[in-house]
Design brief:
alpha/beta; seven-stranded mixed sheet
Length: 280
C-alpha cells in the first residue's frame, strides 16, 4: 500500500515538472487531442482530419521515435498514443523535437486506452485556446470483436506480438462508457463511415471543411480482418461482431455491469449476440 502511494506521488511530481516545461515551450496555435479505446477508429479519425487540414490526401513521415510523426510542409506534428511509453522517454523525445513542434501549424495528440480523467503532462487543459478536444467512439461489440480479432492475429506472431495491448477488463469498459458523458466533440466511427452530412457537421465544429476519406490505416498492423473486409465500403466494419466471436468472459463482463449503458444500436447487437449464443 505504501509502495503504491509512493509510486503515485512520484508520478504526480514527474508529470508536474514535465508539464511546467512543456507549457513554456512554443507550440502551434491549434491543437487536436484525440482520445479513445484502441480499435475504435482513432487513426481513421486522425488521417481524416489530416486530409481536412491539407485539403487533399496526405501521409506522415516518422520523426525519429516511432510515436512522433511529421506531415509535409510543417502542417501537422503528431504524437501518437503518447501514454504507452514512460513519461521520461516521452519528455526526452518532446525536447528533441521541440523545434519541429514549434514550426508546425497544428499539433495532434493521441491518447489510447485511458480513462477520461487520466492525467498526463501532454494532455491539454480543456479550456486551452485553439483546442479541438475529440472523443473517438464506436459501437461496443464491434470494438470488442475487433480487439478479439487483433489478439488472435498477434498471438500467431513470435512472443505473441502486441496481443497484450488489446486486453479488455472492467476498468477499460468503464472508461469506454464514461467518455460518452464527457464534454467533448464525439466522433462516432459508425456514423462517420456512411453519413456525409454528419461528417460535414463534425468538420464544421472542428473548424475544418474538407471531407476527404482516408485509405486504410497502417497503424498497429491495420485491419486484422481479411482483404475483402478491410475496406471502409459497405457494412463490414459496422458488423464486426458477426464476423468475429467475442470472448465469453468479455460478454459476461458486459452483462454483469454495463447493460444499462448500451446505446440503441448496441442493445440490438447484444440481442443478436445473445440469441445466437442461445441457438448454438
Amino acid at each position: 500500500m505504501a509502495k503504491a502511494g509512493s509510486r503515485r506521488l512520484a508520478r504526480s511530481v514527474t508529470h508536474t515538472v514535465f508539464r511546467a516545461v512543456w507549457l513554456l515551450l512554443p507550440k502551434p496555435a491549434r491543437t487536436v487531442h484525440i482520445a479513445g479505446l484502441r480499435r475504435c477508429g482513432n487513426h481513421a479519425c486522425i488521417n481524416w482530419l489530416a486530409n481536412a487540414v491539407y485539403g487533399h490526401p496526405v501521409d506522415y513521415l516518422r520523426a525519429g521515435h516511432y510515436l512522433f510523426r511529421q506531415y509535409p510542409d510543417n502542417g501537422i506534428f503528431l504524437i501518437n498514443s503518447y501514454a504507452q511509453v514512460s513519461a521520461l522517454t516521452l519528455f526526452w523525445q518532446v525536447w528533441k523535437h521541440r523545434k519541429a513542434i514549434a514550426r508546425s501549424q497544428w499539433l495532434f495528440l493521441s491518447l489510447e486506452d485511458q480513462r477520461p480523467g487520466f492525467d498526463h503532462f501532454l494532455r491539454p487543459r480543456p479550456d486551452k485556446p485553439g483546442l479541438v478536444n475529440i472523443h473517438v467512439d464506436r459501437t461496443l461489440f464491434n470494438m470488442l470483436a475487433s480487439r478479439a480479432k487483433k489478439i488472435e492475429v498477434e498471438q500467431a506472431k513470435p512472443q505473441c506480438g502486441i496481443a497484450g495491448n488489446f486486453r479488455v477488463d472492467g476498468e477499460l469498459l468503464a472508461g469506454f462508457f464514461a467518455y460518452r458523458h464527457a464534454p467533448l466533440l464525439h466522433w462516432a466511427y459508425d456514423r462517420w463511415l456512411v453519413d456525409a452530412e454528419w461528417r460535414r457537421e463534425f468538420l464544421r465544429q472542428a473548424g475544418l471543411k474538407h471531407d476527404i476519406l482516408p485509405g486504410m490505416s497502417r497503424e498497429a498492423g491495420g485491419s486484422s480482418f481479411g482483404p475483402a473486409e478491410a475496406g471502409k465500403t459497405g457494412n463490414a466494419p459496422m458488423t464486426r461482431f458477426r464476423a468475429q466471436a467475442i470472448p465469453p468472459a468479455w460478454l459476461c463482463l458486459v452483462e454483469q455491469r454495463f447493460i444499462p449503458e448500451l446505446g440503441h444500436a448496441e442493445a440490438r447487437q447484444w440481442h443478436e449476440i445473445r440469441t445466437t449464443r442461445t441457438a448454438t
